[in-house]
Amino acid sequence: MSVRRLALPIAGVVASVALVVPPGHAEPSPDALTHAPQAKVPVAEGYGGAVATVDLDASKAALGVLKQGGNAMDAAVAGAAALGVTEPYSAGLAGGGFIVYYDARHGRVVTLDGREKAPAAMTETSFQENGAPIPFADAVSSGLSVGVPGSVAQWELALKKFGTLSLKDALKPAADLAARGFVVDQTFFDQTQQNAARFADFTSTAALYLPGGAPPPVGSVFRNPDLANTYRELGKRGGSWLYGGGLGAELVATVKTPPVRPGTTRVVRPGLMTTGDLRAYRALERSPSKVRYGPLEVYGMAPPSSGGSTVGEALNILESLPEAGLHEYLEASRLAFADRNKYVGDPGYVDVPLRELLSDGFAKERACLIGPTAMPNPAAPGTPDGTYPGCQLDGAAPPPGVKADQPEGPETTHLVVADRWGNVAAYNITIEQTGGSGIVVPGRGVLLNNELTDFTFGPAPGDPNLPAPGKRPRSSMAPTIVLKGGKPVLAVGSPGGATIITTVLQILVNRYEFGMSLPEAVAAPRASQRNAAATQAEQAFIDRYGAELTALGHTLTLVPGPPVGEIGAATGLEFLPHGRLQAVAEPSRRGGGSALVVTPARR
Ligand code: GLU
Question: In which pathway does it act (predicted)?
Answer without folding.
Answer: Sulfur metabolism; glutathione metabolism
